[in-house]
């Protein structure tokens, strides 16, 4: 079955690094995504990683994938107050007809 | 701005009523997905259309239906509304039937009273 788990809350100080973790169960997951949802807004695609990659870096964001443990993480360097939001991990298979399966989201609070 | 437009932004209606939510996908995107976001269930996939045809079905109630029109916009119809249908309804679109990158609209917040 498909299941994506995330911790619900994370609190960090401004300037520190944030690490948001996610585990998934579907070993056929091919793409893994991180979305950001700010209050009252839709979901914004932050980054995604293909399952044959271990790491992807995009400015302050680093995605690490441990396919053996089915563990995905998002590291935000130099976290700012504007990073406060809910972060969703999601997976999909490339075999078609498979919509995104989301975790319940991690609420990141950045303390100034 | 993701390029996906949803209307209306907010909707308040009474139990038993029927509402229609509308979504215009990004230009060129053939796939449209509908998701429901509630506090207890998180983001649940409802249904997907690709170029006018239903492609995948998720946890969509029989009281709910959707369609995608020739101009690729989509509508989600919710009928016999119950209090528990109150949620944020998102539409997303992507270029292929397999959503490598799905872009989300701002959502329609439905409140059933």
Query: Considering DSSP H and I runs of 4 or more, what fraction of the residues of chain B is helical?
Result: under 10%
Number of helices of chain B: 0
Gyration radius from CA atoms of chain A, angstroms: 13 Å
Intertermini distance of chain A: 40 Å
**First and last CA, distance of chain B:** 31 Å
Helix coverage percent of chain A: under 10%
Radius of gyration of chain B, in Å, reads 13 Å
Describe the sheet with the most strands of chain B.
Answer: 7 strands, mixed
Explain what you see:
The complex is a heterodimer of chains A (112) and B (113). Helices cover 0% and strands 55% of the residues of chain A. Chain A starts with a strand and ends with a strand. The model of chain A has no long low-confidence stretch (mean pLDDT 90). In chain A, the strands form two sheets. In chain A, strands 2, 4, 5, 9, 10 and 11 form a six-stranded mixed β-sheet that branches. Chain A has a five-stranded antiparallel β-sheet with strand order 1-3-8-7-6, with no helix packed on it. By secondary structure, chain A is mostly beta strands. Chain A has strands at residues 4-6, 9-13, 18-24, 31-37, 43-50, 55-58, 61-66, 71-76, 85-92, 101-102, 106-111. Chain B has 113 residues and is mainly β. Chain B starts with a strand and ends with a strand. In chain B, a hairpin with a 2-residue loop joins strand 5 (42-50) and strand 6 (53-57). Classes of the chains: A mainly beta (112), B mainly beta (113). Chains A and B meet through strand 5 and strand 10 of A and strand 5 and strand 10 of B.
């Amino acid at each position: 079955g498909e299941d994506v788990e995330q911790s619900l809350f994370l609190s960090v100080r401004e300037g520190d690094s944030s690490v948001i973790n996610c585990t998934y169960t579907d070993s056929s997951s091919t793409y893994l995504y991180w979305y950001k949802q700010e209050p009252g807004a839709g979901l914004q695609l932050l980054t995604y990683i293909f399952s044959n990659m271990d790491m992807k870096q995009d400015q302050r964001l680093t995605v690490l994938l441990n396919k053996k443990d089915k563990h995905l993480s998002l590291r935000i360097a130099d976290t700012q107050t504007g990073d406060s939001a809910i972060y969703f991990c999601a997976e999909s298979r490339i075999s078609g007809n498979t919509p995104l399966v989301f975790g319940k989201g991690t609420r990141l609070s950045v303390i100034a | 701005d993701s390029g996906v437009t949803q209307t209306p932004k907010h909707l308040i209606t009474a139990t038993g009523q029927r509402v229609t939510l509308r979504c215009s996908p990004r230009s060129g995107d053939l796939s449209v997905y509908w998701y429901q976001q509630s506090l207890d269930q998180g983001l649940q996939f409802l249904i997907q259309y690709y170029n006018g045809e239903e492609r995948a079905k998720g946890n969509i109630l029989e009281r709910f239906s959707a369609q995608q029109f020739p101009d690729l916009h989509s509508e989600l119809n919710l009928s016999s509304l119950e209090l528990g249908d109150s949620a944020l309804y998102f539409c997303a679109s992507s270029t292929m039937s397999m959503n490598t990158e799905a872009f989300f609209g701002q959502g329609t917040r439905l409140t059933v009273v």
